Amino acid sequence: METFILFGLIGSLFICHASADISLNNYGDSAYPNRCVLDVGSSTVLLKMGQAFRLTSLPCTTIFCTGDGYGMLLTCDKKEPPEDCRYTEYLNWDDDYPDCCNRKVECN
């Protein structure tokens, strides 16, 4: 049953966030089997399958643990701004992913 739920969650992430940058990484540590282990400076975060952790030091970056030490790193896509425009600050830095991806656009 957990596997079915996991694939449903992963599938919904790909469908809903097709414009996001997603990478699969190994966050495993033999001292913590079946967990994603994140070293966030002064502490260690242990995630179970299906749990997510927002990296506050990076703009709109979340790690979603898919199980067995593997996790998906979700970041905003690298799309180009409209012609003669540029992206500036993030509008909702503290919002949940992907709402935190919204950025101010300034045009000439």
From TrEMBL:
InterPro entries: SVWC_dom (IPR029277). The keyword Isomerase does not apply. SMART domains: SVWC. Its main location: secreted. Keywords: Secreted, Signal. This is Single domain-containing protein. Residues 36-107 form the Single domain. It comes from Drosophila gunungcola (fruit fly). One of its GO terms (cellular component) is extracellular region. It is found in: Secreted. Residues 1-20 form the signal peptide.
